[in-house]
Every structure is written in structure tokens, then in C-alpha cells.
Amino acid sequence: MVKATLVSLSSGVFICLFSATAMANDLPVNSTPNSLKSSSGDSLQTIVSYRNNGASSPRSMPKIPSVSGADRQRVKRSVPAGNADELFALALQADATGCKSLAYMICLQITAIEPSHPGVRRFLNHVRFDSRWMTFDEAVAKAETLLESGRLELLLGRLLPELMAQSDTTARRLAVGNLTGRAQIQSGQFAAAGKIYADMSAMAPAPACHKYAAMAELLTENPDGMYLLAEPYPGAAAILGQGGRHLVPGPVSLKDNLAMEASLHDKAAEAMAEAIKAITKAARNPQVFVAAQKAFDKADAIYPNISRSYRIELAAARAAELRGQAQLDLKAFNHAVEALGQTAMDAGAYHGMLVGLLTALEGIAAKLVQASEIIKPHAKEAGDLPGQIARDLSGLENIRSTLKAELHDK
């Protein structure tokens, strides 16, 4: 890790110490006179800023011992706040030359000298709220608390815009976007929330993009925030008479988290409806099988695990189909083996026949291996099918060993 601290050497002279135990690429090796220079080993590299009659110039210094914790605290108390700007300029220089971790550590040091330095705090992606600076993750947790407590005006008007301004990665923009969309739904801004989720669906990778797209569709199709629920939700609660809250068919508000959950359940069911109808066809057709799997992936992204029972059915059907094909191929293989013993041929022809049989056997085994891989994630629910495939593969291995031994003997 690269560490930075300020040490007062003499009147008007301040030194920034950097531990050179970081990775080699943390410091540029061939630097210009005004840039940072690298060192090798576990030594300390120093950059000194002189204040001499208003002039300022950096230069390299000899190696010096590390600074104790007590000295660090002494330095923090003794360095004038104005020097934070010069150190921040050094941090920006480090960042511009690719020394990201070094720049970060310099900025952390500056916060001990001048806690409210705005440039440094922005560089660190910190967010100011309630008269204090927070890390990005702390601010997200605070936003969740405000959302749960219904303090939507404060959340939408102040904290979330600050968070979005500091969202420097796609993951952070998605996290803040989701918070914004949820808060807008709770405040009745359904059209605005729909636009947020549409933007997120274009930004997010699969499969997460599918849920955001479904939410955008729901809010566009129901601009007043009312959704017509066709069936009880959760369905098991109505059937089994379970306790706990559930919804009855009829209009429900998407402000209600359970209603939003129910509407996403419906969207997921729509997403996999065609795939369910095509399970029998998918068992025989590899392209349809792949398309059905993708439809189930989309449905599960919208509503987790909604496709589970259908996935098991699809996998079992496809694996059984592949095993059936392998068994038919094995019958043809056995006929060829029988013919081998009834046909007169010279040594070269016999050798070629053995090679052909081994090749055919590899093709049969490939289908069984594929079937095994398909059913493997659902082995507990697939009955004896995984065991049957395993026994088939074991039998093929015995045949392969016999043919190879015969081939080597000849």
C-alpha cells in the first residue's frame, strides 16, 4: 500500500513521504522534472515543496526513515491549512500520470489537514449531507434509511442528486438510479420513474437489464400507478390459507411494494410463456432449447427463480432426448461390430474399421456427456435419469477399452 504524510523539515519547507511498497506501476519510472519519480524496494520516496520568497518548486530527496504515528499527528497539527491546495495539486499530478492509488492516499492525508476541502472530497467520491462528509457506501445506506422512513423530499431533492454526481461507475449509477426510481414511485412520480428504469435497462448488462426494462414497461403501461391484478398474490397464500399479507384480484397501487412484486411476477410469467409451450419442441431442437433457456433467464431476472420447475422439465426432456439419440446410435454401432466378425478383410481394412468404430463411439459418448451436463444442475429432481446416463457412459468406456486393446494388438 502507498502511504502519504507531511513532515515539516524547516521553516517554509514541507515534505510529502510516500512508501514505495506499492506495485511497481504505482510510480512512473521515466518522469519529467516536475513529475513523481519511482524507487525500487521498500524504501521511501520523497517529494519536497519549497516556499521560498513566494516561489515553489518540487525536487527529489534522499531516502529517509519512516515516520512514526506520533510524528504524523504532530505534523497534522502543525501544517497550515493552506498547504492542502498544493498537496491536492500533487495528487492530481499523480492521478494524471496513472498513479491512481498514490493520488488516493495523498487525498486521504489531506482530509486530516483540511477535512472539508471540496476538491479532495469530490476526488474521493465523498458525499456531503447533514453537515458531514460520507463515503459513497455510507451515503447509499443513508438514502435507504430516508426511503424507508418516507423522507422523500429530502432524499430526491438533496441526497440522491449528490450521489448521482459522485457515481463514477456503471454499478454505482445503477444503484443510485434504482434508489431514485423507488423514491419517485413512492412520491407518485410514475412517469419519471419509468424513464429512470428505461435508462437503466439500456445501461445494465444482462440479465439485470431485463428487470429494469420490465419496470419501465409497467410504469409506462400504468402511468397512474394503478395495476390490475388478475390473480391472488402470492398464489399459495390464497390456496393454502396461509397467514401474512396477500393481495386479492383487482386494482392495486404500484406504490405498494407487494403490488410491485406481484406485477413483476406477471411480467416474468409473460416472458417465459412461449418457452413453456415450446418445451417439447426444445427437447428435440437445440436452437429452440437455447432460446427457451434464454427466456427462462430473462424471467428469472425479472422475478427470481420463477422458472425453476420449468427449467427442470426442460432439462430433463432435453437430456432424455439426447440419451435416446445415443441409444439409437449405439444400436447401429452394435450392428457394425457384429458385421465386423462376419466380413473377410485384410489387416489394413480391419485397422480402418476399428478406427471408424472408435470414432463412432466418441460421437455417442459426446451426446451422453452433453445430456449429463444439462441435467447435472437438477440432479436431485431428475429421478434416475442422471444415474442412467452415468451407467451408459460407463458401458461405453468398457467398449472403448476393448476396441483400443484390439487396435493396439493389430
What does this structure look like?
This protein is of the alpha+beta class and 410 residues long. It folds into three domains: 4-124, no CATH class; 132-272, no CATH class; 308-409. The chain has 16 helices and eight strands. The chain has helices at residues 69-78, 83-96, 100-113, 118-123, 136-148, 152-165, 170-186, 190-203, 208-221, 235-240, 257-277, 279-284, 286-302, 308-340, 347-375, 385-409; strands spanning 4-10, 13-19, 44-52, 55-60, 127-129, 132-134, 226-229, 250-253. The strands form three sheets. The protein has a four-stranded antiparallel β-sheet. The chain has a two-stranded antiparallel ribbon with strand order 5-6. Helix 7 packs antiparallel against helix 8 (190-203), helix 9 packs across helix 11 and helix 14 runs antiparallel to helix 15 (347-375). The chain is elongated and about 95 Å long. It starts with a strand and ends with a helix.
